[in-house]
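Re: the 136-residue chain
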Amino acid sequence: MNVWEQVITDPVPAIKAAMSEAIRTCSLSRDQIVDEMNRLMRQLGWTTNGRGQKVTTALLDKWVAPAASHVIPLRLLPLFCRVVQSNLPLEAYARSFQSVEVISDEDGKILQWARSELELRKAKRRAKRLAQEVGL
């Protein structure tokens, strides 16, 4: 069965819940989150494409409200995560994909080490087998 034949769950409720949790655990107020998002957006030359062209506290509230139809634009999700210093929303979004997980830089390095270690062990076994074949 290919991906288009599978039932895909809507990631929006999980993203909204994760954003709410990230805001709750963030040391910044909602106003400070909005101010920092707008500052970064100005640096990048981005707008929200809405009427106000910037993030407002009311818009942030709509992005996290379970019943609201407003959803954070995808390109702003990493920016939001950076401001609140949480990858929870990205992790929630990743769960909507098959076999995808968000990991930290440290876990990525551990994974790279593990792959290198596996390759090394395979190479050692191959070298040992070849040495036996040639009588060493």
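The radius of gyration is 22 Å.
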